[in-house]
């Protein structure tokens, strides 16, 4: 995601953006933001087109209250800034989920055109991490996407650098409430996205959003 795309996509949530940029590790981007008008007037592409770190975009997206709708049965799939009045299945999707699954530029593109065409990444037998959490009574819960009904239970997953590894234990049995959360879970399952309980084998960290994991042979 480029710097101008970040500032454009979240122009209605400037306070969130400013709050994130207060972080010490983002001070160079804060200086860019403080001088944004000047950069736009000069069309300074060296600043406007700079690719921002995923972590910066993720922090901003997590604070966002923006909502989108993914019509996942279409080819290509469509992310819309408004909910269409049809009976077609959809998934209500957040800015952070768009960033993780399709890239941050899609957020800006959707706002400019009211929709954006998207295509999930080809995984070629690998596993895409949508998100992961440490839950007190469950353990490590991971939201993972696979293709072609790939079976994960009992399999070991390895990070790209080989420094982290997990085993997939099972799918959790949880009561899902409200109804909107249940419907979202079902729409994700139709797209190959499921919840799994995983256990670290090497390292103790969770897998990170947007990470691609390999099945250990």
Descriptive account of the structure:
Helix 1 (3-9) crosses helix 8. The protein has a six-stranded antiparallel barrel. The protein has a four-stranded antiparallel sheet with strand order 3-1-2-4. It is globular. The protein has helices at residues 3-9, 14-21, 27-34, 36-42, 45-48, 54-63, 95-102, 105-113, 179-190, and strands at residues 67-71, 77-80, 91-94, 115-118, 127-135, 139-145, 156-158, 165-170, 193-202, 212-215. With 217 residues, the chain is α+β, with helices and mostly antiparallel strands.
What are the defining features of this structure?
6-stranded antiparallel β-barrel; 217 residues; 3 domains; 10 strands; alpha+beta; globular; 34% helix; 4-stranded antiparallel sheet; 9 helices
Describe the structure concisely for a colleague:
The protein is an alpha+beta fold. It has helices at residues 3-9, 14-21, 27-34, 36-42, 45-48, 54-63, 95-102, 105-113, 179-190, and strands at 67-71, 77-80, 91-94, 115-118, 127-135, 139-145, 156-158, 165-170, 193-202, 212-215.
């Amino acid at each position: 995601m480029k710097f101008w795309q970040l500032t454009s996509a979240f122009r209605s949530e400037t306070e969130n953006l400013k709050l994130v940029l207060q972080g010490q590790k983002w001070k160079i981007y804060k200086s860019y933001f403080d001088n944004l008008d000047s950069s736009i007037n000069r069309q300074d592409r060296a600043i406007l087109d700079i690719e921002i770190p995923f972590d910066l975009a993720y922090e901003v997206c997590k604070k966002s209250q923006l909502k989108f709708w993914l019509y996942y049965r279409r080819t290509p799939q469509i992310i819309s800034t408004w909910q269409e009045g049809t009976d077609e299945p959809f998934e209500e999707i957040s800015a952070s989920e768009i960033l993780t699954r399709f890239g941050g530029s899609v957020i800006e593109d959707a706002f400019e055109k009211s929709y954006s065409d998207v295509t999930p990444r080809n995984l070629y037998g690998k596993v895409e991490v949508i998100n992961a959490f440490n839950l007190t009574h469950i353990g490590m819960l991971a939201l993972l996407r696979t293709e072609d009904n790939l079976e994960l239970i009992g399999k070991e997953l390895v990070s790209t650098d080989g420094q982290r590894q997990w085993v997939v234990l099972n799918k959790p049995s949880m009561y899902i409430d409200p109804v909107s959360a249940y419907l979202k879970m079902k729409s994700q399952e139709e797209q190959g996205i499921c919840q799994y309980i995983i256990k670290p084998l090497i390292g103790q960290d969770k897998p990170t959003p947007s990470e691609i994991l390999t099945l250990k042979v």
